[in-house]
Design brief:
The complex is a heterodimer of chains A (271) and B (253). Chain A has 271 residues and is α/β, with parallel strands linked by helices. Chain A folds into two domains: 8-89 and 197-270, Rossmann fold; 95-171, no CATH class. Helix content of chain A is 35%, strand content 25%. Chain A is built from nine helices and eleven strands. Chain A has helices at 63-70, 102-105, 112-122, 127-140, 156-169, 186-203, 214-220, 250-253, 255-270, and strands at residues 8-9, 19-30, 37-48, 52-56, 78-83, 86-87, 95-98, 174-178, 206-211, 223-228, 233-239. In chain A, strands 1-11-10-4-9-8-7 form a seven-stranded mixed beta sheet, with helices on both faces. The longest helix of chain A is centred in the last third of the chain and has 18 residues, at 186-203. Chain A is globular. The two termini of chain A are 15 Å apart. Chain B is an all-alpha fold. Chain B has one domain: MetI-like (MetI-like fold, Orthogonal Bundle), CATH 1.10.3720. Chain B has helices spanning 2-24, 36-48, 51-83, 85-100, 103-114, 118-142, 146-154, 159-193, 202-211, 215-243, 245-252. In chain B, helix 3 (51-83) runs parallel beside helix 6 and helix 3 (51-83) runs antiparallel to helix 8. The longest helix of chain B is centred in the last third of the chain and has 35 residues, at 159-193. The chains are: A alpha/beta (271), B mainly alpha (253). The A-B interface holds A 71-73, 91-93, 95-97, 99, 101, 104-105, 107-110, 118-119, 121-123, 150, 152-153, 166, 170 and B 145-148, 150-151, 153-158, 161-162, 165-166, 169-170, 172, 246-247, 249-250, 253.
């Protein structure tokens, strides 16, 4: 099958410029030796500064496992993950994460501000500076002045904004997102998607997002990595070419969006 | 007004029961069941003379120190054991063995080994109270949301901070439940520990009066322990509301 002309088959390498996140020959799995259950086979991926990469695949393909590998929570069976030229051996200050389930990732005994500031406390940032950065990040996600509320006093969408603010306040170079909008309603999901688009444009953060939602993957990303099969491997890479600005109506009506959507859905149906 | 109505609902039954007891026992001739008026009379006499106040002070000091030790040891060990799988595997059998031993039965042994004075009594209370606190803390730690653990790891939260600000508050509802279970155990063991080789405290007061056939005093002492226990539980509920305010409020929404 040949790719439609309007979209490009992307590369696993960066388009140009510096590599920030380098995933090299990474295999992930659980168990050892003969009993090893291989989840992900030989993944290679380079992500550049300020790039937005989506990794899309069917449910249960191993997306969360991959993200655990990238975040340093689970060491790869083979291969290396490096950020800014440094191979990571565990959680790394250049990598922050937003988890799928906001209601479980925020601490109900802390106020919103404390939740956002808490990781900074571990880095030895003083109280004043912590609170300043927390307030700043809350403002960036549209929650200024809400720092004294507890997470359980907020809607799901607002809670996920808090989780995003927490990752931003950490000032990491790479932001990993694991199905971050899977547990909110459709309208909130659109709002959060646009929030992330704007944050990328305003702050130049580098984002790797995994999702099973094909539309979301295309809408947000510069490059969409499609993974499928067992163990999972990369089956397609698409460059969207949308630039840094998106619109929920126009972008999704763009022929390139439609082409990419058709191509990925067809590919995943085969898998 | 609302609080008055609620207090009314709580109070009418005890008031009724005490009234029944008062009149039913008024003409009692059974020396083991003296009239309530007689019990109250001797109770008041021994409180005014300071005898019971001193006894209560000794007992409650032992109880408080014992509980504090139990809480400190139970919570610290519970946090460590709950967080460390290996430690759980090694220690699990011992924990369940020791907590199954009836604590009151050990009192003569402990006092035999440690002698008279406050130390063995404090130790007995601490030893009896530590188990529910320890087991509940371990459970509470196990129950901390895995995503919150992942978050703490991704953001490189140092161990000590992690225990203080993540694991401890996350386990706190269970820790408090453990303390709540430990309180009445502590009160019982406090009294029992004073029945052996003792010359002060509420348990001694009860034992001594009973041994010298001062039955109203025995009843009075037991009544006093009950009232003290009730007051302690009420105070504990207030403490619980404060410490777990986030928990109750989040659950209420």
């Amino acid at each position: 099958m040949t790719a439609p002309q309007s979209i490009h088959t992307g590369s696993l390498d960066v388009l140009g410029g510096e590599v920030l996140l380098d995933v090299s020959h990474v295999s992930m799995g659980y168990g050892d030796g003969e009993h090893e259950k291989r989840i992900l086979e030989d993944l290679n991926l380079k992500v550049g500064h300020s790039e937005f990469v989506s990794i899309v695949g069917p449910s249960g393909v191993g997306k969360t496992t991959l993200l655990r590998g990238l975040s340093g929570l689970l060491p790869p069976k083979r291969g290396t993950v490096s950020v800014a030229g440094q191979t990571i051996t565990g959680p790394h200050p250049d990598i922050a994460a937003v988890f799928q389930d906001y209601s479980r990732s925020l601490m109900p005994w802390m106020t919103t501000r404390e939740n956002v500031a808490f990781p900074l406390q571990g880095q030895g940032v003083g109280r004043r500076e912590r609170n300043r950065r927390a307030e700043e990040s809350l403002e960036e996600v549209g929650l200024s002045g809400q720092g004294d509320k507890y997470p359980w006093e907020m809607s799901g969408g607002m809670q996920q904004r808090v989780a995003i603010a927490r990752a931003l306040a950490y000032h990491a170079k790479v932001l990993l997102m694991d199905e971050p909008f899977a547990s909110v309603d459709a309208q909130t999901r659109f709002d959060l998607e646009d929030l992330v688009v704007n944050l990328r444009e305003a702050l130049g953060v580098t984002i790797v997002l995994v999702t099973h939602d094909v539309d979301e993957a295309i809408y947000l990303a510069d490059r969409v990595i499609v993974i499928a099969e067992k163990p999972a491997t990369v089956v397609d890479v698409i460059e969207t070419g949308f630039g840094t600005v998106r619109d929920q109506v126009d972008t999704k009506a763009d022929p390139r969006f439609q082409d990419a959507r058709g191509r990925i859905l067809t590919r995943l149906r085969k898998a | 007004m609302k609080t008055l109505i609620r207090a009314g609902w709580t109070l009418w039954l005890p008031v009724l029961l005490v009234t029944i007891w008062w009149f039913a026992s008024a003409n009692s001739t059974n020396i083991y069941v003296p009239s309530l008026s007689r019990i109250v009379e001797v109770l008041w006499r021994d409180i005014s003379s300071g005898l019971l106040i001193d006894a209560a002070r000794v007992s409650l000091t032992n109880l408080a120190v014992g509980l504090l030790i139990a809480a400190a040891v139970g919570i610290l060990l519970g946090l460590l054991i709950g967080e460390t799988r290996r430690l759980r595997l090694i220690l699990d059998p011992y924990i369940h063995f020791f907590r199954s031993v009836p604590q009151s039965a050990l009192v003569p042994l402990i006092i035999g080994a440690m002698g008279i004075g406050a130390a063995p009594k404090i130790y007995t209370v601490a030893f009896a109270c530590v188990w529910p606190i320890l087991l509940n803390t371990i459970d509470g730690v196990r129950g901390v949301e895995p995503t919150i653990r992942s978050v703490s790891r991704v953001f490189g939260v140092p161990k000590l901070l992690y225990f203080r600000r993540v694991v401890l508050p996350g386990a706190m509802p269970q820790v408090v439940a453990g303390l709540r279970v430990a309180l009445p155990i502590g009160i019982v063991v406090m009294v029992v520990s004073e029945l052996f080789a003792s010359n002060q405290g509420l348990g001694f007061y009860i034992l001594n009066s009973s041994a010298t056939f001062q039955i109203p005093e025995t009843w009075g002492g037991a009544l006093m322990v009950g009232v003290i226990g009730y007051i302690i539980v009420i105070m504990f509920s207030l403490f619980e509301r404060r410490v777990l305010s986030w928990y109750f409020r989040s659950g209420a929404l």
